[in-house]
Specification:
The chain has 171 residues and is mainly β. The protein has a single domain (27-94, 104-165), classed as OB fold (Dihydrolipoamide Acetyltransferase, E2P). It contains 1 helix and 6 strands. It is globular, with a radius of gyration of 17 Å.
Length: 171
């Protein structure tokens, strides 16, 4: 099993690799959720309050140019319920608008859907260099003919961030 987060020791050798980052042009692409982590926001923002719980969702998108990973944050705040609704609809857990909805977080990893990607241009705060990455503009409603929305066979348990004393079951 390949563990990308495995530590390397100072005296260890490692496999030399080039960066495999692929920038996809703006457009609609299929994705597979490859990771989900429960976290607590502790940054500096005028939009997000410190201590806000969020789900960090890692997705793999595939296009003609190759495959890329995109990470999206789903903040657990009422003003952004629209984005939670959009995400869960996009992966086949369609909430009924106006009704309470309890998402099945255990089946998020392995779920598939489609989303509209945009190319985000930014300046690196570390290097001052202009960079680009892909960001999610919108999760798309599944259609009968796109055939990408599926759920994994077995629920996958998310990893937990230890930040802020997060308690299991909080979302």
């Amino acid at each position: 099993m390949n563990n990308e987060n495995e530590f390397l020791g100072w005296g260890d050798s490692f496999i030399a690799e080039e960066s495999s980052f692929t920038l996809l042009p703006a457009g609609e692409y299929p994705f597979t959720v490859t990771g989900f982590e429960r976290k607590i926001y502790d940054g500096n923002s005028t939009k997000i309050q410190n201590g806000t719980p969020y789900a960090e969702i890692e997705m793999e998108f595939t296009g003609a140019e190759g495959t890329t990973k995109v990470i999206d944050r789903l903040y657990m705040v009422k003003k952004w319920q629209w984005k939670l609704t959009q995400f869960f609809t996009g992966i086949g857990q369609a909430p009924i608008i106006g009704q309470p909805f309890a998402p099945n977080w255990g089946t998020v990893v392995g779920s598939r859907g489609r989303a509209k990607l945009v190319v985000n241009k930014y300046t690196s705060s570390k290097t001052g260099k202009e960079n680009e990455n892909n960001q999610i503009d919108e999760y798309l409603v599944p259609t009968a003919n796109n055939g990408v929305v599926t759920q994994p066979q077995q629920p996958v348990q998310p990893t937990q961030s230890q930040q802020g004393g997060f308690q299991p079951g909080a979302f």
